[in-house]
């Protein structure tokens, strides 16, 4: 599914990528747009099929919800008519929702369901400790998602300006965005270190 996301982004951003990332296969012309769409659809179908395969015991409800949720949010982020990446705040919320909350809690719930099945954990203290660690990871990756949302557009200012995509880097300047992202990343590492150290 991640490959579908990456290919989808390249298919939809060819004009900007010709300026920002001319080495990418679609921007470089190594693949046609139609081939890119075919690769994107194939990756999406295979990814969802693996997650929803009825014959495997690993196809848990949390995993299915994570796959569907991240696919829907990624589609809303990249594709018309919503194409939320046009709006810096909504783009940041999409990225942090997937990378922060959805993936961490979804995969944690999936792993717990595979380990414990339908029964209760053998130790409530162990389960609580695992949930706390997952909460710490989720909090870290929420902040980390904000950092990614800020940093990913810094090198792409020229192409984003050319195609009219509003980003924080265009609005506030790359140096200021980089400084804020660096401070947030340091805060995330410090907060998780303190939380896990106190646990």
Automatic annotation (TrEMBL):
Transmembrane regions listed in the UniProt entry: 36-55, 61-80, 87-108, 128-151, 177-198
Membrane topology of this protein: Multi-pass membrane protein
Signal peptide interval: none
Keyword Transmembrane helix: yes
Gene3D superfamilies linked: UbiA prenyltransferase
Record keywords, A-Z: Membrane, Transferase, Transmembrane, Transmembrane helix
Principal location class: membrane
Family membership: Belongs to the UbiA prenyltransferase family.
GO CC, alphabetical: membrane
GO molecular function: transferase activity, transferring alkyl or aryl (other than methyl) groups
Protein name, per record: Uncharacterized protein
Subcellular location: Membrane
InterPro entries: UbiA_prenyltransferase, UbiA_sf
Organism in which the protein naturally occurs: Diacronema lutheri (Unicellular marine alga)
